[in-house]
Design a protein that fits this description.
Length: about 400
Protein backbone atom coordinates (compact mmCIF):
# COMPACT_ATOMS: atom_id res chain seq x y z
CA UNK A 1 0.00 0.00 0.00
CA UNK A 2 1.44 3.37 -0.92
CA UNK A 3 2.11 6.02 1.68
CA UNK A 4 2.11 9.75 1.16
CA UNK A 5 4.87 12.14 2.19
CA UNK A 6 3.64 12.85 5.72
CA UNK A 7 5.52 16.11 5.80
CA UNK A 8 2.89 17.60 3.49
CA UNK A 9 0.26 16.90 6.14
CA UNK A 10 2.16 19.09 8.59
CA UNK A 11 1.67 22.20 6.44
CA UNK A 12 -0.79 24.46 8.25
CA UNK A 13 -3.79 25.94 6.44
CA UNK A 14 -3.83 26.79 2.78
CA UNK A 15 -1.39 28.95 0.95
CA UNK A 16 -1.79 32.60 1.94
CA UNK A 17 -2.86 33.85 -1.47
CA UNK A 18 -5.51 31.14 -1.94
CA UNK A 19 -7.09 32.21 1.36
CA UNK A 20 -7.13 35.83 0.21
CA UNK A 21 -8.58 34.88 -3.20
CA UNK A 22 -11.37 32.90 -1.51
CA UNK A 23 -12.24 35.79 0.82
CA UNK A 24 -12.27 38.29 -2.05
CA UNK A 25 -14.43 36.04 -4.27
CA UNK A 26 -16.93 35.53 -1.45
CA UNK A 27 -17.10 39.30 -0.85
CA UNK A 28 -17.48 40.05 -4.58
CA UNK A 29 -20.25 37.46 -4.90
CA UNK A 30 -22.15 39.18 -2.07
CA UNK A 31 -21.46 42.68 -3.46
CA UNK A 32 -21.46 42.32 -7.24
CA UNK A 33 -21.71 46.11 -7.86
CA UNK A 34 -18.60 47.07 -5.96
CA UNK A 35 -15.34 47.44 -7.83
CA UNK A 36 -12.47 45.92 -5.92
CA UNK A 37 -8.90 47.19 -6.35
CA UNK A 38 -6.25 44.53 -5.81
CA UNK A 39 -2.96 45.66 -4.34
CA UNK A 40 -2.34 42.32 -2.66
CA UNK A 41 -0.50 39.74 -4.72
CA UNK A 42 2.84 40.83 -6.15
CA UNK A 43 1.94 40.42 -9.82
CA UNK A 44 2.86 43.03 -12.40
CA UNK A 45 0.31 44.83 -14.60
CA UNK A 46 2.39 46.52 -17.31
CA UNK A 47 2.90 44.73 -20.67
CA UNK A 48 6.28 43.36 -21.73
CA UNK A 49 8.59 46.10 -23.05
CA UNK A 50 8.78 46.49 -26.87
CA UNK A 51 12.40 45.24 -27.08
CA UNK A 52 11.32 42.03 -25.32
CA UNK A 53 8.28 41.55 -27.56
CA UNK A 54 10.47 42.04 -30.62
CA UNK A 55 12.94 39.40 -29.39
CA UNK A 56 10.07 37.00 -28.69
CA UNK A 57 8.62 37.47 -32.21
CA UNK A 58 11.95 36.93 -33.84
CA UNK A 59 12.64 33.80 -31.76
CA UNK A 60 9.19 32.42 -32.63
CA UNK A 61 10.01 32.89 -36.34
CA UNK A 62 13.24 30.94 -35.82
CA UNK A 63 11.20 28.06 -34.44
CA UNK A 64 9.19 27.94 -37.70
CA UNK A 65 12.23 27.16 -39.83
CA UNK A 66 14.07 23.82 -39.74
CA UNK A 67 17.38 25.64 -40.20
CA UNK A 68 16.96 27.70 -37.02
CA UNK A 69 14.55 25.54 -34.99
CA UNK A 70 15.66 24.76 -31.42
CA UNK A 71 14.77 21.69 -29.37
CA UNK A 72 15.91 21.07 -25.81
CA UNK A 73 17.92 23.93 -24.40
CA UNK A 74 21.33 23.26 -22.85
CA UNK A 75 20.89 22.12 -19.21
CA UNK A 76 22.27 25.25 -17.63
CA UNK A 77 20.83 27.73 -20.14
CA UNK A 78 21.95 29.16 -23.49
CA UNK A 79 25.36 30.78 -23.48
CA UNK A 80 24.04 33.98 -25.06
CA UNK A 81 21.86 34.56 -21.97
CA UNK A 82 24.39 33.43 -19.38
CA UNK A 83 27.02 35.68 -20.93
CA UNK A 84 24.62 38.64 -20.91
CA UNK A 85 23.74 38.00 -17.25
CA UNK A 86 27.39 37.62 -16.21
CA UNK A 87 28.34 40.81 -17.99
CA UNK A 88 25.45 43.10 -17.01
CA UNK A 89 24.41 41.82 -13.59
CA UNK A 90 27.89 41.04 -12.27
CA UNK A 91 30.92 42.25 -14.25
CA UNK A 92 29.49 45.77 -14.59
CA UNK A 93 29.39 45.91 -10.78
CA UNK A 94 32.92 44.55 -10.49
CA UNK A 95 31.72 41.13 -9.26
CA UNK A 96 33.62 38.05 -10.27
CA UNK A 97 30.92 35.63 -11.47
CA UNK A 98 31.57 33.44 -14.50
CA UNK A 99 28.86 32.56 -17.03
CA UNK A 100 29.18 28.88 -16.10
CA UNK A 101 28.30 29.68 -12.48
CA UNK A 102 24.85 30.83 -13.67
CA UNK A 103 21.99 28.32 -13.94
CA UNK A 104 19.05 29.59 -16.00
CA UNK A 105 15.62 28.45 -14.84
CA UNK A 106 11.95 29.28 -15.17
CA UNK A 107 11.88 31.49 -12.09
CA UNK A 108 13.00 32.14 -8.55
CA UNK A 109 10.01 30.48 -6.88
CA UNK A 110 11.05 27.06 -8.17
CA UNK A 111 14.71 27.71 -7.46
CA UNK A 112 14.07 29.01 -3.94
CA UNK A 113 11.92 25.96 -3.26
CA UNK A 114 14.23 23.42 -4.89
CA UNK A 115 17.60 24.61 -3.66
CA UNK A 116 17.15 22.97 -0.23
CA UNK A 117 17.30 19.55 -1.95
CA UNK A 118 21.08 19.70 -2.29
CA UNK A 119 21.49 20.03 1.49
CA UNK A 120 21.22 17.38 4.17
CA UNK A 121 17.88 17.14 5.97
CA UNK A 122 19.87 17.62 9.20
CA UNK A 123 20.64 21.20 8.31
CA UNK A 124 19.00 23.85 10.39
CA UNK A 125 17.50 26.78 8.55
CA UNK A 126 17.21 30.40 9.67
CA UNK A 127 14.61 32.66 8.12
CA UNK A 128 13.56 36.25 8.51
CA UNK A 129 10.25 36.76 10.25
CA UNK A 130 8.15 37.87 8.36
CA UNK A 131 9.26 35.82 5.35
CA UNK A 132 8.39 34.81 1.77
CA UNK A 133 6.51 31.59 2.72
CA UNK A 134 8.13 29.37 0.06
CA UNK A 135 11.41 29.11 2.01
CA UNK A 136 9.71 27.56 5.03
CA UNK A 137 7.04 25.47 3.31
CA UNK A 138 9.52 23.71 1.05
CA UNK A 139 11.68 22.85 4.06
CA UNK A 140 8.55 21.50 5.79
CA UNK A 141 7.93 19.27 2.76
CA UNK A 142 11.52 18.01 3.05
CA UNK A 143 11.07 17.21 6.76
CA UNK A 144 13.60 19.72 8.01
CA UNK A 145 11.45 21.90 10.28
CA UNK A 146 10.32 19.75 13.25
CA UNK A 147 6.85 20.23 14.66
CA UNK A 148 4.45 23.11 14.25
CA UNK A 149 3.12 25.09 17.18
CA UNK A 150 -0.23 26.47 15.98
CA UNK A 151 -0.51 28.93 18.89
CA UNK A 152 2.82 30.59 18.26
CA UNK A 153 2.72 29.79 14.51
CA UNK A 154 6.33 28.63 14.53
CA UNK A 155 8.24 25.42 13.72
CA UNK A 156 10.33 23.85 16.46
CA UNK A 157 13.46 23.37 14.32
CA UNK A 158 13.49 26.69 12.48
CA UNK A 159 15.48 29.69 13.66
CA UNK A 160 13.33 32.79 13.28
CA UNK A 161 15.02 36.15 12.93
CA UNK A 162 12.50 38.87 13.76
CA UNK A 163 12.47 41.88 11.44
CA UNK A 164 10.77 44.65 13.34
CA UNK A 165 10.46 48.40 13.44
CA UNK A 166 13.21 48.38 16.09
CA UNK A 167 15.83 46.84 13.78
CA UNK A 168 14.62 48.63 10.64
CA UNK A 169 13.24 45.29 9.34
CA UNK A 170 16.78 43.92 8.85
CA UNK A 171 17.53 40.83 10.98
CA UNK A 172 20.23 40.58 13.60
CA UNK A 173 22.68 37.68 13.63
CA UNK A 174 20.92 34.72 15.31
CA UNK A 175 21.94 33.47 18.76
CA UNK A 176 21.70 29.84 17.66
CA UNK A 177 23.97 28.91 14.75
CA UNK A 178 22.13 27.95 11.54
CA UNK A 179 23.44 25.92 8.58
CA UNK A 180 21.33 27.61 5.93
CA UNK A 181 20.33 31.26 6.11
CA UNK A 182 17.62 32.61 3.84
CA UNK A 183 17.92 36.34 3.20
CA UNK A 184 15.81 38.33 0.76
CA UNK A 185 16.75 41.95 -0.01
CA UNK A 186 15.15 44.21 -1.07
CA UNK A 187 12.64 42.42 1.07
CA UNK A 188 9.31 40.85 0.38
CA UNK A 189 7.11 41.53 2.34
CA UNK A 190 8.51 44.49 4.34
CA UNK A 191 10.02 46.45 1.42
CA UNK A 192 13.16 47.04 3.52
CA UNK A 193 16.69 47.08 2.10
CA UNK A 194 20.03 46.01 3.53
CA UNK A 195 23.15 48.18 3.27
CA UNK A 196 26.36 46.77 1.88
CA UNK A 197 27.99 47.06 5.32
CA UNK A 198 25.13 45.12 6.94
CA UNK A 199 25.24 42.42 4.27
CA UNK A 200 29.02 42.17 4.65
CA UNK A 201 28.45 41.30 8.33
CA UNK A 202 26.23 38.42 7.26
CA UNK A 203 28.78 37.18 4.75
CA UNK A 204 31.55 37.34 7.36
CA UNK A 205 29.31 35.54 9.84
CA UNK A 206 28.39 32.77 7.36
CA UNK A 207 32.04 32.20 6.48
CA UNK A 208 32.92 32.13 10.18
CA UNK A 209 30.30 29.55 11.21
CA UNK A 210 30.31 27.54 7.96
CA UNK A 211 26.77 28.42 6.91
CA UNK A 212 25.39 29.04 3.43
CA UNK A 213 23.38 32.18 2.68
CA UNK A 214 20.61 31.67 0.15
CA UNK A 215 20.23 35.23 -1.05
CA UNK A 216 17.03 36.05 -2.90
CA UNK A 217 17.55 39.24 -4.92
CA UNK A 218 14.29 39.06 -6.89
CA UNK A 219 13.68 42.79 -6.31
CA UNK A 220 17.19 44.07 -7.01
CA UNK A 221 15.99 46.16 -9.98
CA UNK A 222 13.97 48.37 -7.60
CA UNK A 223 16.97 49.64 -5.64
CA UNK A 224 17.11 53.43 -5.93
CA UNK A 225 19.57 54.41 -3.20
CA UNK A 226 23.34 54.36 -3.11
CA UNK A 227 25.02 51.95 -0.71
CA UNK A 228 22.43 49.20 -1.19
CA UNK A 229 24.02 46.11 -2.79
CA UNK A 230 22.48 44.80 -6.02
CA UNK A 231 24.01 41.40 -5.45
CA UNK A 232 25.51 39.60 -2.48
CA UNK A 233 28.63 39.10 -4.59
CA UNK A 234 29.46 42.78 -4.04
CA UNK A 235 30.53 41.61 -0.57
CA UNK A 236 34.00 40.26 0.00
CA UNK A 237 34.04 36.54 0.73
CA UNK A 238 30.56 35.85 -0.68
CA UNK A 239 31.96 33.35 -3.19
CA UNK A 240 32.62 30.87 -0.39
CA UNK A 241 29.27 31.18 1.39
CA UNK A 242 26.48 32.45 -0.89
CA UNK A 243 24.00 31.28 -3.47
CA UNK A 244 22.03 34.01 -5.22
CA UNK A 245 18.54 33.69 -6.68
CA UNK A 246 17.35 36.10 -9.36
CA UNK A 247 14.13 36.55 -11.26
CA UNK A 248 13.03 38.32 -14.44
CA UNK A 249 9.48 38.57 -13.05
CA UNK A 250 9.63 41.92 -11.35
CA UNK A 251 12.70 43.22 -13.18
CA UNK A 252 11.12 42.82 -16.61
CA UNK A 253 7.47 41.76 -16.20
CA UNK A 254 8.10 38.02 -16.80
CA UNK A 255 5.64 36.75 -14.16
CA UNK A 256 3.71 34.98 -16.92
CA UNK A 257 6.64 34.48 -19.29
CA UNK A 258 8.83 32.74 -16.65
CA UNK A 259 12.57 33.19 -16.38
CA UNK A 260 15.07 33.32 -13.53
CA UNK A 261 18.49 32.12 -12.58
CA UNK A 262 20.60 30.89 -9.69
CA UNK A 263 24.27 31.68 -9.16
CA UNK A 264 26.46 29.15 -7.37
CA UNK A 265 30.14 30.07 -7.27
CA UNK A 266 32.50 27.14 -7.72
CA UNK A 267 34.33 28.19 -4.53
CA UNK A 268 31.32 27.22 -2.40
CA UNK A 269 32.21 23.80 -1.00
CA UNK A 270 31.45 21.25 1.69
CA UNK A 271 34.79 19.47 2.04
CA UNK A 272 35.74 18.63 -1.54
CA UNK A 273 32.20 18.75 -2.87
CA UNK A 274 31.12 21.88 -4.71
CA UNK A 275 27.48 22.90 -4.38
CA UNK A 276 27.80 23.93 -8.03
CA UNK A 277 28.29 20.28 -9.05
CA UNK A 278 25.28 19.14 -6.99
CA UNK A 279 22.97 21.79 -8.44
CA UNK A 280 24.26 21.01 -11.96
CA UNK A 281 23.41 17.35 -11.33
CA UNK A 282 19.97 18.22 -10.07
CA UNK A 283 19.30 20.60 -12.94
CA UNK A 284 20.43 18.00 -15.48
CA UNK A 285 18.30 15.28 -13.91
CA UNK A 286 15.10 17.14 -13.13
CA UNK A 287 14.93 20.10 -15.48
CA UNK A 288 14.91 20.43 -19.26
CA UNK A 289 15.60 24.11 -19.59
CA UNK A 290 13.70 27.37 -19.98
CA UNK A 291 12.25 27.77 -23.49
CA UNK A 292 14.54 29.14 -26.21
CA UNK A 293 12.11 31.95 -27.06
CA UNK A 294 11.97 33.02 -23.41
CA UNK A 295 15.74 32.98 -23.08
CA UNK A 296 15.98 35.20 -26.18
CA UNK A 297 13.44 37.51 -24.52
CA UNK A 298 15.67 37.49 -21.43
CA UNK A 299 18.67 38.47 -23.53
CA UNK A 300 16.72 41.51 -24.80
CA UNK A 301 16.36 42.70 -21.18
CA UNK A 302 20.06 43.56 -21.33
CA UNK A 303 20.03 45.34 -24.73
CA UNK A 304 20.38 49.14 -24.61
CA UNK A 305 16.72 49.56 -25.70
CA UNK A 306 15.55 46.90 -23.25
CA UNK A 307 17.42 48.52 -20.37
CA UNK A 308 15.99 51.98 -21.18
CA UNK A 309 12.44 50.66 -21.50
CA UNK A 310 12.64 48.70 -18.27
CA UNK A 311 14.02 51.66 -16.39
CA UNK A 312 10.80 53.48 -17.32
CA UNK A 313 8.66 50.50 -16.32
CA UNK A 314 10.28 50.32 -12.91
CA UNK A 315 9.94 54.10 -12.50
CA UNK A 316 6.21 53.67 -13.23
CA UNK A 317 5.80 51.16 -10.39
CA UNK A 318 7.97 53.19 -8.03
CA UNK A 319 5.77 56.23 -8.70
CA UNK A 320 2.91 54.07 -7.43
CA UNK A 321 4.99 53.18 -4.38
CA UNK A 322 5.45 56.89 -3.65
CA UNK A 323 1.70 57.54 -4.03
CA UNK A 324 0.94 54.74 -1.56
CA UNK A 325 3.63 55.62 0.93
CA UNK A 326 3.00 59.37 0.99
CA UNK A 327 -0.79 59.01 0.85
CA UNK A 328 -0.88 56.61 3.79
CA UNK A 329 1.56 58.70 5.80
CA UNK A 330 -0.70 61.74 5.22
CA UNK A 331 -3.64 59.67 6.42
CA UNK A 332 -1.73 59.00 9.64
CA UNK A 333 -0.53 55.45 8.99
CA UNK A 334 2.90 54.28 10.04
CA UNK A 335 4.55 53.11 6.80
CA UNK A 336 7.90 51.76 5.64
CA UNK A 337 9.41 50.25 2.48
CA UNK A 338 8.55 51.55 -0.98
CA UNK A 339 11.93 53.23 -1.63
CA UNK A 340 14.15 50.34 -2.79
CA UNK A 341 11.31 47.85 -3.20
CA UNK A 342 7.82 47.76 -4.70
CA UNK A 343 6.25 46.85 -1.34
CA UNK A 344 4.83 49.14 1.32
CA UNK A 345 4.59 47.74 4.83
CA UNK A 346 2.11 49.49 7.09
CA UNK A 347 0.98 49.11 10.63
CA UNK A 348 -2.70 48.31 11.08
CA UNK A 349 -4.30 51.14 13.04
CA UNK A 350 -5.40 50.76 16.65
CA UNK A 351 -4.99 47.25 17.89
CA UNK A 352 -6.34 45.61 14.77
CA UNK A 353 -4.82 42.30 13.72
CA UNK A 354 -3.60 41.91 10.16
CA UNK A 355 -6.69 39.90 9.13
CA UNK A 356 -9.04 42.36 10.86
CA UNK A 357 -7.44 45.14 8.85
CA UNK A 358 -7.75 43.01 5.68
CA UNK A 359 -11.52 42.74 6.23
CA UNK A 360 -11.78 46.40 7.20
CA UNK A 361 -10.07 47.57 3.99
CA UNK A 362 -12.00 45.13 1.82
CA UNK A 363 -15.35 46.16 3.28
CA UNK A 364 -14.78 49.89 3.80
CA UNK A 365 -12.57 50.75 0.81
CA UNK A 366 -12.92 47.70 -1.46
CA UNK A 367 -9.14 47.49 -1.50
CA UNK A 368 -7.29 44.18 -1.19
CA UNK A 369 -3.88 43.92 0.42
CA UNK A 370 -1.98 41.12 2.13
CA UNK A 371 -2.14 40.51 5.90
CA UNK A 372 1.33 40.68 7.40
CA UNK A 373 0.63 37.76 9.74
CA UNK A 374 0.50 35.49 6.66
CA UNK A 375 4.27 35.96 6.39
CA UNK A 376 5.09 34.97 9.98
CA UNK A 377 4.37 35.87 13.60
CA UNK A 378 6.34 39.14 13.52
CA UNK A 379 4.11 40.24 10.64
CA UNK A 380 1.07 40.31 12.96
CA UNK A 381 -0.46 43.78 13.09
CA UNK A 382 1.13 44.70 9.74
CA UNK A 383 -0.17 44.80 6.20
CA UNK A 384 1.49 44.74 2.76
CA UNK A 385 0.43 46.80 -0.25
CA UNK A 386 2.14 46.42 -3.61
CA UNK A 387 3.09 49.06 -6.16
CA UNK A 388 2.37 46.70 -9.07
CA UNK A 389 -1.13 47.99 -9.83
CA UNK A 390 -1.90 50.52 -12.53
CA UNK A 391 -1.26 54.15 -11.59
CA UNK A 392 -4.98 54.96 -11.85
CA UNK A 393 -6.00 52.10 -9.57
CA UNK A 394 -3.25 52.94 -7.09
CA UNK A 395 -4.35 56.57 -6.84
CA UNK A 396 -8.01 55.49 -6.53
CA UNK A 397 -7.17 52.93 -3.81
CA UNK A 398 -5.30 55.49 -1.72
CA UNK A 399 -8.10 58.04 -2.10
CA UNK A 400 -10.56 55.40 -0.89
CA UNK A 401 -8.38 54.50 2.11
CA UNK A 402 -7.97 58.18 3.00
CA UNK A 403 -11.74 58.65 2.81
CA UNK A 404 -12.57 55.90 5.33
C1 LIG B 1 11.06 37.03 -2.61
C2 LIG B 1 10.56 36.38 -3.84
N1 LIG B 1 11.29 35.42 -4.42
C3 LIG B 1 10.86 34.79 -5.51
C4 LIG B 1 9.66 35.12 -6.10
C5 LIG B 1 9.18 34.36 -7.28
O1 LIG B 1 9.75 34.80 -8.47
P1 LIG B 1 9.45 34.08 -9.84
O2 LIG B 1 8.28 34.75 -10.47
O3 LIG B 1 10.72 34.26 -10.62
O4 LIG B 1 9.17 32.64 -9.60
C6 LIG B 1 8.87 36.11 -5.55
C7 LIG B 1 7.58 36.42 -6.15
O5 LIG B 1 6.74 37.10 -5.68
C8 LIG B 1 9.33 36.74 -4.38
O6 LIG B 1 8.61 37.69 -3.79
Amino acid sequence: MFKVNDNYLKLPGSYLFSTIAKKVSAYQAEHPDQSIIRLGIGDVTQPLAPAIIEALHSAVDEMADAATFKGYAPDLGYEFLRNAIAEHDYHELGCEIAADEIFVSDGAKCDSGNIQEIFSTDNKIAVCDPVYPVYIDTNVMAGRTGTYDPDREVWSDVIYMPCTEANGFVPELPKETPDLIYLCFPNNPTGSAITKAQLQEWVDYANRVGAVIIYDAAYEAYISEEGIPHTIFECEGARTCAIELRSFSKKAGFTGTRLGYTVIPKDLKSGDVTLHSLWARRHGTKYNGAPYIVQRAGEAVYSPEGKAQLEKQIAYYMKNAKVIKEGLAEAGYSVSGGVNAPYIWLKAPGRMTSWEFFDYLLERANVVGTPGSGFGPSGEGYFRLTAFGTYENTVAAIERIKAI
